[in-house]
Automatic annotation (TrEMBL):
Keywords: Aminotransferase, Pyridoxal phosphate, Transferase. Belongs to the DegT/DnrJ/EryC1 family. InterPro entries: DegT/StrS_aminotransferase (IPR000653), PyrdxlP-dep_Trfase (IPR015424), PyrdxlP-dep_Trfase_major (IPR015421), PyrdxlP-dep_Trfase_small (IPR015422). This is DegT/DnrJ/EryC1/StrS family aminotransferase. CDD domains: AHBA_syn (cd00616). The keyword Transferase applies. It comes from Gelidibacter pelagius. The keyword Zinc does not apply. Gene3D superfamilies: Aspartate Aminotransferase, domain 1, Type I PLP-dependent aspartate aminotransferase-like (Major domain). GO terms for molecular function: transaminase activity.
Amino acid sequence: MIKFLDLHKINARFETDFQERFKSFLNSGHYILGSEVERFEMDFAAYCGTKYCIGTANGLDALTLIFKSYIHLGKLEINDEVIVPANTYIASILSIINAGLKPVLVEPDLETYNLSAEETIKHLNPNTKAILVVHLYGQLADMHAINTIAKSKGLLVIEDAAQAHGAVESSKFEVQSSRFKKAGNLGDAAAFSFYPTKNLGALGDAGAVTTNDRDLAETVKLMRNYGSSKKYVNEIIGVNSRLDELQAAFLNIKLKQLDKDNDMRRTMAKRYLHEIKNKKLTLPFYSGEDDHVFHVFVIRVIDRSGFETYLQSKGVEYLIHYPVPPHQQKALSMLNENKYPITEEIHKTVVSIPMSPVMAADEIFTVINALNAY
Ligand SMILES: *Cc1c(COP(=O)(O)O)cnc(C)c1O
């Protein structure tokens, strides 16, 4: 059996460091918003190239807190429209709704599966105030085009970077600085999830907001902790969505490995792209650069249920990202009547095959052979 993602194998590499760090955490007697969270916020901001990082309890909260903070700051108002790709994980859309804003779903590009700039333009109206881009499957969205649209219309750009930790802007957008920008630093604010399966994953729930906007950073920081920066003094209406100190400790250890792990994923993806040769399977678009961190490796196949049965017979685990598009979920009944043919086509045909930084060469070989024999 080839595992889809061996989380224990991924984390076992850090076992000694985890145990040492846990011991000092236990001994510190300081279990909430301590030195580990502080260090992670500094180091992850530096990693992304942003001025600020604020740890949160999870990725959905990170997204929601960005929107709620913009409302608090008067940059967004209740019921403002936010453009969001129709094919995304439901969290992107929930964050907009939970903040009191209105999601406007837009079809993706069938090649990259990311938000289409042309489609976005068609949905703009005077109520549109922000664009939430999702770097789906680990591949950066077309930020150049999206930022150009946003600039001309005065819209906020927020990144859902939950699948794209460490993805670097393509070299064709190199500016004078010669410093490439990373996911988290390509819009006005970004949200990350460190759910265990993500490219940078904790051993539980965790998330973060990154931004260069000082007012936003300060508001998110207040809001995630009961609207308070000083104990028992509450300045605004907040929530409890702090990044857990122990998860921050684990993330501090794992952050050092992130670039190497992303390189392993890209190397593996290149093997798949070169060696899988089967006309029945559509392989993902890849520029060959570091703008893709292959959070998942998604292929498409017309007869998906037949292919699923085949993979099961070969002992190759797989997942579907995602089986039901958000607009067809019962929870989003107000969107159920809408039609998004490209999104629906993607949801009907996608299959994610094993992808991880710790897969053995013979396992990769087995997957390739199985796919070529289909
Ligand atoms: C994982 C994920 C989230 C939510 O993260 P949680 O930490 O599970 O709340 C949001 N958006 C996308 C695209 C994700 O993949």
